[in-house]
C-alpha cells in the first residue's frame, strides 16, 4: 500500500465512537474501541485519505450475557413424578445473548431434558426423570449458573395402589355399642398420589375423619361414626385406583351373639 497513515472512523446511529490506533511496526496497526450500547455501527477505513474498498463495514454490537438476570419459575423446579414430564419456565429476555443449557441427574440415572424455544428469549423446560429420588437440576446461561441453580428436584415414584395397606377394626365386623371405627391406611412405597376414603352406610354416605402426624407422613389414621346397625361399605382409593381389598364390606350388629354367628 506504500507509505501512508490509516484512519479509522466508527459511527453509531447517534454519535461517533472513539477508535484507538496502535502502530505495531512493519505497516501493521491495531484498532480498538469500546462500544457502550448494543446497536449497529458503521466503520470506515481509509489510507492516505482514500476509503478502502468494501467500506463502510457494518458491525452489530450485542450486550454481554448476564446469567444473574435469568428468571426461572414453576413447580417443575421443586418436585415431580416418575414417568411424567416436569415443566418449568425460563425467561432470558433481560440477560442478553447467550446459550441456555439444562442438565438433570438423579441418584443413579440422568433425566431427559428438553428446552422449547418460544422465539422471544423465553423457554419451556421439560424434564422427564427415570427414577424416584432427589435430582440435581443444573440450568446455565452462557456457561454460568442462573439464580437458584443447581435446583433440588424431589421426584416421587409413580402411584402404585397395590402397595397401600389398610388394616384396623374399622374395616371389620363389630357390635354397634363397642364398635371401634378407626383403621390405618399405610401408603409407604405407593409412590405419589392422593388418598380418598368413602364410607356408605344403611342410609347413605358418612363423613370420614383423616389424620396424620405430619403433612409428609405416609400413614393416615381414618375413622367414621356409625350410628345404627346394618351393612357398611368402606372404599379406599390411591390416585383414583382401588387399593387391595377395597371396597371393604363391614356389618355392624346389635349384639355379641349376632357377631359370633356372623363370624362363623
TrEMBL record:
GO biological process: actin cytoskeleton organization
Keywords: Repeat
Family as reported in the entry's similarity comment: Belongs to the filamin family.
Filamin repeat feature ranges: 1-61, 62-155, 156-252
UniProt superkingdom: Eukaryota
Name of the featured protein: Filamin
SMART domains documented for this protein: IG_FLMN
One Pfam family it belongs to: Filamin
SUPFAM superfamilies reported for this sequence: E set domains
Transmembrane feature ranges: none
Organism ancestry: Eukaryota, Metazoa, Ecdysozoa, Arthropoda, Hexapoda
GO molecular function: actin filament binding
Organism: Bracon brevicornis
Keyword Repeat: yes
